[in-house]
Amino acid sequence: MEARVVHALQNRQVLLLCVFLGVSWAGAETLRYFVAEETERGTFLANLAIDLGLGTGELSARGCRIVSDKTTGFLLLNPLTGDLLLNEKLDREELCGPTEPCVLPFQLLLEKPFQIFHAELWVRDINDHSPVFLDREITLNILESTTPGATFLLESAQDSDVGINNLRNYTVSSNVYFHINVHDNGEGNVYSELVLDKVLDREEVPELRLTLTALDGGSPPRSGTTVIHILVLDINDNVPEFVESLYKVQVPENSPVGSLVVTVSARDLDTGSNGEIVYAFFYATERILKTFRINSTSGNLHLKAELNYEAIQTYTLTIQAKDGGGLSGKCTVVVHVTDINDNPPELLMSSLTSPIAENSPETVVAVFRIRDRDSGNNAKMVCSIQDHLPFVLKPSVENFYTLVTETPLDRESQAEYNITITVTDLGTPRLITGLNLSKVVEDINDHSPVFTEREMILKIPENSPLGITFPLSNALDLDVGSNSVQNYKISPNSHFEVLTRKLSDGRMYPELVLKEELDREEEPEILLTLTALDGGSPHRYGTAQVRVEVVDSNDNAPEFGQPIYKVHIPENSPVGSLVVTVSASDLDSGVYGIISYTLFQPSEDISKTLEVNPVTGEIRLKKQVDFETVVSYEVDIKATDGGGLSGKCTLLLQVVDVNDNPPEVTLSALTSPIPENSPEIVVAVFSVSDPDSGDNGKTITSIQDDLPFLLKPSVKNFYTLVDVSGDGTLSHSYQYEVCLRGGSGTGEFKFVKPIIPNIQAQSSGRNSEENPTFRNSFGFNFQ
Ligand SMILES: *[C@@H]1O[C@H](CO)[C@@H](O)[C@H](O)[C@H]1NC(C)=O
Ligand SMILES: *[C@@H]1O[C@H](CO)[C@@H](O)[C@H](O)[C@H]1NC(C)=O
Ligand SMILES: *[C@@H]1O[C@H](CO)[C@@H](O)[C@H](O)[C@H]1NC(C)=O
Ligand SMILES: *[C@@H]1O[C@H](CO)[C@@H](O)[C@H](O)[C@H]1NC(C)=O
After folding, report:
1. Greater confidence, 125 or 189?
2. Of the candidates 476, 500, 501, which has an alpha carbon nearest to the alpha carbon of residue 488?
3. At the fourth CATH level, which superfamily is domain 450-550?
4. Which of 20, 103, 607, 711 has the fewest Cβ atoms within 10 Å of its own Cβ atom?
5. Looking at domain 241-338, does it have CATH number 2.60.40.60?
6. Choice from 182, 189, 190, 216 to test ligand 1 binding pocket (greatest atom count within 8 A of CB)
7. For domain 16-124, is the CATH number 2.60.40.60?
8. Nearest ligand, CA 344
9. Does any ligand 3 atom lie closer than 6 A to the CB of residue 418?
10. How many angstroms separate the most distant Cα atoms in the chain?
11. What are the pLDDT digits (tens) for 48-87?
């Protein structure tokens, strides 16, 4: 308010001054008028009539006008009144530029009579221009660390006004780094320079903008401004510095190779190469070098290999940033590998009970463990089975579970359950593992196999080929599955084994296999025990009897109890006497075992002598045998069975001699009488014989002791009787009786008996009583 009042007052003063000047210069040599530039058109300047001392109307009468070289028309003269008015607004700067004073000369011309007056219009400056800088911005590059006191010359501003209205002063916006020095070069030129007051730090203040104000001397002063843009130039006075000294990043383990882990960023406050940073690992381990790579320019840390949370959870890397000037800084990057639910839960079955017996109370069906290699929620698991099953899962220690029956099971209502154990982890995405247990609700092995036929009779011909098979009836078992019949066994025996065969419907039946030949005669019937075993534990079993009847074939010939029958029969045994009973047997049965006996190819003599009872085998005499005729018979006897097979035996029939023949003496020669005194004279030559055999045929020939004769055995039952008297002569004539004894007790005797009264014949009589075979004590035997 106050300033405005002052301003208005000043304007009026100028105007008043002009008017005053306008009237104060009249006449004289040169008329001088003053006007301030920018004065309004029509402004009264002076009254020329008065200034020239002319009367009113004289000017017009004399033909008065204003003449000027340069400027015409800026003044207007009223010839009637003589008033000189400003015809246009004047701009001093346009009319005179920097020239001061700004004088516009003009002439006042009077034509009648001609008279010329010189006049001047002085245009005075007013402060109507502000200082102006040619550039809107002045740029100054100043190295940081420049020593305070350094000066920087500034561009000058221009001001069209002159004199006091021209530039007078410079100021700079307030700041801590610079002040301004204003100099006057003495020619009215004012210039300025910046003076550094404080060390610049580019890193702290990389640039400054100051406002430079140029002030003129007007009142009030006018001003113009420009901006001083100060760029602080870098020197490598800074080490690269990481934005963060510790980067903690979490990287999912399934991140693909090449993916960005983190971008580390170091700053170097320096510029240019001093600020150019190269990133590198700082003493990285092999593992880190294999897993990561860093872009040296961008600081991007990338994955070079796949991560595996389950293997390594954390990597700690040191990264170095180095600037072009060799300074470096470090940071640490801790990479936490985060678990991805990349491992499905696992189900490890520890034990599994199958089948389960029906009607059992709570039974542990399965024991298993679940595990998930992930961590956190990814490793948390939920384990379940389907609803509506009579089973429950019971968690146990350390991820162990038991699957138990909830209620006793009833095989009859449901014989089988399919249980799916589902393990789900709580990770994202959910990973599920399933295990299907097919549970038979198993029937108890409460039934034994039963054969419908308790006894099976097999008729097998003897001599059947080995390996021949005989299917047998199978056993039934009310249990199912493995509790049903699985196997057949046969009691130990040498002939058969049993094979377990499978029917097309899965049932098992036994098959008997002959492994050793059957021989009815040896074993006409074989009793076997067939056992059917089920697959339960313990096994249950059922048995049946298998009676193998070996069917006969005529494979046996009759066979005699002994190959040779030796029989003695006394001669003269009566007709019909039983000689012997032969007996053959035949192991075959039936007609194959029925035997009839016959004489085998008997001679006529034998046919007449012996007969055999074909049924009983009794051999009897058909006629009497005579030892002296036939001593022995050799007879073949045949036994024939109903099948025509036969066997033979031999009967050696020895006819036993009966002592029915007395010894006989046959005289061959007899010398009688015997001349006396003849030396050793053969008295008689005789032979002794007995048709009986054996002892019955043996003879002893003897003579009495007290005779002068000697019996001399000769060849072949021949004897000579010789005279062995003392002088070799037989002086007496005797009649001798020779006593011969037969071998058999009942033998008859013939005697050659000397006719001597004292003959001793007692011994023969005695012996014959005691023993049918006797020997004379003095006799000698000859054959
Ligand atoms: C220039 O301006 C400054 C600040 O306003 C003042 O201190 C100084 O006296 C002035 N100088 C001149 C020559 O007017
Ligand atoms: C490093 O990063 C820069 C900028 O992102 C890129 O131009 C350059 O190809 C990268 N170098 C490598 C080796 O990837
Ligand atoms: C159990 O699964 C088996 C095989 O898939 C199938 O044959 C049987 O019928 C199923 N039993 C039940 C009771 O679902
Ligand atoms: C388990 O059984 C269900 C139903 O039959 C079937 O969909 C699933 O694929 C089975 N799972 C396994 C692991 O066999």
Report:
1. 125
2. 500
3. Cadherins (2.60.40.60)
4. 20
5. yes
6. 182
7. yes
8. 4
9. yes
10. 280
11. 888 888 887 888 888 888 887 665 678 888 888 889 999 8
